[in-house]
Design a protein that fits this description.
Oligomer: heterodimer
Distance between the termini of chain B: 28 Å
Largest sheet of chain B: none
Order of helices and strands of chain B: HHHHHHHH
Shape of chain A: rod-shaped
Number of strands of chain B: 0
Shape of chain B: globular
Largest sheet of chain A: none
Largest interface: A-B, 61 and 82 residues
Number of helices of chain A: 9
Radius of gyration of chain B: 19 Å
Strand content of chain A: under 5%
Structural class of chain A: mainly alpha
Helix content of chain B: 55-70%
Number of helices of chain B: 8
Chain lengths: ~170, ~200
């Protein structure tokens, strides 16, 4: 009965509640004590006592009622408080990891979705740059190299090339 | 865990078809609901009828209770609406919504009393029970009386009581239980034929 008294006060541990509640409702003596303890609390707080058999009449009325069966919630509230934030954190970490890995992965021909088409089918041949023949054209390209679209993303590299090419042309 | 969690456990059991669990809630809240209804229904027989109707409505509506508010807050709204409908049907003035705000539910602790009991005998019995509880309280050892008063009247937790009384929480739990047992034994002969007499 001491555990029931603590249960009434909300002072029982979570894992003890279910067992205690089950024992109360299965034992008429405990059920009567549950009602009496609440009655005592109400009297001490100045509630007026109902001296008739309200609970008995309610019992009869409830017996006539069809049993309610509420659909079970998919997760208890306490579980939701823990599981959902954890799942959200894991999803966030997974997205970040996926983005990081997908940017840094160097696809091998086997990994590539279009792999076979990318694989060379003939031995590599030596490719010789088709350099402009005339000295005038070469100077023209050197002068306008800074306007090339490739310079936008390469930072100082075009400048370095220009200097080195300039050294070479001397 | 607190009082609200105990109610929630009982509600969940009732939602799974356990009528006994709901009856434990009825035993817990019947006087509070009766006192609430007595604020705008004068006759105690009518109060009883409306209270029963409110509990039955609450039972039927259990599938819709999702625990977003405390069970008593939800029950309070049902009781007020049941009373309003009853008064309207009886051709009497129903309370306005501002008179009974749901925010009031949790702190509804003023001293309104039932205006009339069913019978003079019932009224006498009620007074005797209250007197016996008070007498027994005075006879309790000091430490038991203080413990149960701090719990039931002041609403302190066991932890707070243990600090106030400078004793372990286990001792507080034991003292409150012993106080309840002593009082329960004294009022037992006075109780009706209801469930609260069968121990």
């Amino acid at each position: 009965m001491e555990r029931m008294s603590a249960l009434m006060d909300g002072e029982l541990e979570d894992h003890e509640i279910a067992g205690e509640l089950a024992s109360i409702k299965d034992d008429p003596r405990r059920e009567a004590k549950w009602a009496a303890y609440h009655l005592i609390g109400d009297v001490l707080r100045g509630e007026n006592v109902i001296a008739d058999d309200f609970t008995v009449r309610m019992h009869v009325k409830l017996s006539d009622e069809p049993t309610v069966l509420a659909p079970r919630r998919w997760m208890r509230r306490t579980t939701r408080r823990v599981v959902l934030p954890l799942a959200a954190s894991l999803c966030g970490a997974a997205v970040v990891a996926w983005l990081a890995l997908s940017n840094n992965t160097i696809l091998s021909p086997q990994d590539s979705p279009v792999g076979p088409a990318w694989v060379a089918t003939s031995p590599p041949t030596e490719q010789i740059a088709d350099l402009p023949a005339s000295e005038v054209m070469s100077e023209y390209l050197m002068a306008h190299q800074q306007f090339s679209p490739s310079t936008v993303r390469q930072g100082v590299v075009p400048y370095v090339r220009t200097v080195s090419t300039g050294n070479g042309s001397r | 865990m607190g009082d609200r969690e105990v109610d929630q456990q009982l509600v969940e059991r009732a939602q799974r078809g356990d009528k006994k669990a709901f009856e434990l809630l009825v035993a817990k809240y019947q006087r509070k609901i009766n006192r609430l209804l007595s604020r705008f229904i004068r006759d105690s027989a009518e109060i009883d009828d409306v209270a029963q109707e409110a509990f039955i409505k609450a039972y039927r509506a259990l599938p819709s209770f999702r625990g977003d508010s405390a069970f008593y807050t939800w029950l309070y709204r049902i009781a007020v609406n049941t009373a309003k409908n009853y008064l309207v049907a009886a051709g009497r003035r129903a309370p306005t919504s501002t008179q009974f705000d749901s925010d009031e539910a949790e702190s509804f602790e003023d001293g309104h009393q039932l205006r009339h009991m069913n019978t003079p005998e019932a009224e006498l019995m009620s007074k005797q029970i209250a007197a016996t509880v008070n007498e027994t309280m005075q006879e309790l050892p000091e430490e038991l009386r203080t413990a149960i008063m701090l719990r039931e009247i002041e609403g302190l937790s066991y932890e707070d009581i243990s600090e106030a009384m400078n004793c372990p929480i286990g001792t507080v739990r034991s003292r409150i239980f012993r106080a309840r047992e002593t009082i329960a034994d004294r009022i037992r002969p006075l109780l009706g034929t209801g469930k609260d007499k069968r121990w």
